[in-house]
Design brief:
Elements: E1 6-15, E2 18-28, E3 33-37, H1 44-51, E4 59-64, E5 67-68, H2 74-80, E6 82-84, H3 97-107, H4 118-135, H5 150-162, E7 168-172, H6 180-193, E8 198-202, H7 206-212, E9 215-220, E10 223-228, H8 230-234, H9 237-244
Parallel strand pairs: 3-8, 3-9, 6-7, 7-8
Antiparallel strand pairs: 1-2, 1-4, 4-5, 9-10
Helix pairs in contact: 3-4, 3-5, 4-5, 5-6
Length: 252
């Protein structure tokens, strides 16, 4: 088997007496769309926060492409090739769509260094243009980000993560709050992107998860409850009882 793109060993995070992430051992194989599901408070976002360096682990380790990144700062992890989106969309609302990407690209490149060669600015501009085409936002490149539809704003945040050519995208509930049409468009784009970059997604929309993910991890009370393909997870009695619920005709 190929080396996991991301792996955790006994990853643990406590907040006082609450164990938010409880000894999590996970390995995410390359070339597959991985989904993490579970009820609110299961530890999913905290897990992402530790991986991305936004929170320190109390114990355990995180490996990215074989490298131990446990003690790295967020900007160092970002430069390793991990980018993430947030539950609450994080864009610059008063800037244009293109300028959002430009600012993000330059932030990872030393941000507007006064002695940077002009050719480097041309490279960034080309990357911004290519990313807008890739994500499907080229037509609204000059529109103010704060005026975008919710679906386009979610795509813009993904584009801001993509513009620096990451190896791994951590998407935290990218579909939340979207209309059915926006959901369909965004899910199709995520699946398309999965051919070019590794993706791990936290999502509550079970239709999206079971229709698009290759592997599903179910978390509950900070720990891994189950792991498998959509078919395996859908048939798992523990998952049905703890999260998915039983069909009505099972309630005898």
């Amino acid at each position: 088997m190929s080396e996991p793109i991301l792996r955790t060993e006994r990853l643990t995070k406590r907040f006082g007496g609450l164990v938010a992430v409880d000894g999590v051992d996970l390995a995410f194989e390359p070339g597959r769309v991985h989904a993490i599901i579970g009820p609110n408070g299961a530890g999913k976002t905290t897990f992402f926060n530790i991986i991305s360096g936004m929170l320190p682990a109390d114990s355990g380790r995180v490996f990215f492409a074989g490298r131990d990144i446990t003690a790295l700062k967020p900007h160092e992890i970002s430069r390793c090739g991990i980018k993430r989106t947030m539950q609450i969309k994080s864009v610059f609302p008063n800037l244009s769509v293109a300028d959002n990407l430009w600012i993000t690209a330059k932030a990872g490149d030393g941000f507007l260094h006064p002695f940077r060669a002009a050719s480097r600015f041309a490279e960034v501009a080309a990357k911004v243009d290519a990313t807008l085409e890739q994500i499907g936002l080229a037509a609204v490149r000059e529109q103010t980000a704060g005026t975008l539809s919710y679906g386009d704003m979610a795509l813009l945040e993904i584009a801001m993560a993509l513009v620096s050519s990451p190896k791994l995208l951590l998407l935290d509930e990218p579909i939340c709050g979207m209309s059915p049409a926006e959901t369909e468009r965004t899910v199709a784009k995520i699946r398309e992107l999965a051919r070019q970059v590794e993706i791990v997604i936290i999502e509550h929309n079970m239709e999206v998860v079971f229709g698009r993910a290759d592997d599903i991890t179910v978390m509950a009370q900070g720990a891994v409850l189950a792991r498998g393909t959509p078919r395996e997870i859908g048939a798992d009695e523990r998952v049905r009882e703890a999260y998915l619920g039983r069909p009505e005709d099972d309630d005898a």
